[in-house]
Amino acid sequence: MPADGPRPLGEVLKEVIDELGVQEEVDEARVVETWASLAGEKINSVTESAWMKGSTLYVKITSAAWRQELHMNRRKWRDRLNGALEAELVDEIVFR
């Protein structure tokens, strides 16, 4: 049954995402994009790549010093990331 009038775009997009079964891919893209935004210029300059596998975010860092610093603070980064996403999408962050 068609809707009687205009509907919010967010509602329509959610339906389409659900019908296509791509919510996981959308969430993964949001996590990687949000990570880059939170990390800032300095960390992004030493980041080779970032990707999700399950609920773990992997970030490949080219600097050993930065990798160590980020690793020591990975729980804080996870909490900041989930806070920015307003969802518990990341259980762990692994810096390589």
What labels describe this entry?
96 residues, alpha+beta, GMP Synthetase, Chain A, domain 3, three-stranded mixed sheet, 4 helices, 3 strands, 18% strand
Protein structure class: alpha+beta
- For this structure, the quaternary state is single chain
Helicity level: 55-70%
Helix count? 4
Radius of gyration: 17 Å
Q: Which architecture name does CATH use?
A: 2-Layer Sandwich
Strand order of the largest sheet: 1-2-3
InterPro entries: DciA-like (IPR007922)
Organism: Salinibacter ruber (strain DSM 13855 / M31)
Pfam families: DciA
Protein name: DUF721 domain-containing protein
Topology at a glance:
Layout: H1 9-20, H2 23-45, E1 47-53, E2 56-61, H3 64-72, H4 74-85, E3 92-95
Helix pairs in contact: 2-4
Q: Can you walk through the features of this model?
A:
It holds the Pfam family DciA. It comes from Salinibacter ruber (strain DSM 13855 / M31). This is DUF721 domain-containing protein. This protein has 96 residues and is α+β, with helices and mostly antiparallel strands. It has one domain (9-95): GMP Synthetase, Chain A, domain 3. The chain is 58% helix and 18% strand. The protein is built from 4 helices and 3 strands, in the order H-H-E-E-H-H-E. Strands 1-2-3 form a 3-stranded mixed beta sheet. The protein starts with 8 loop residues before the first helix and ends with a strand. The mean pLDDT is 94.
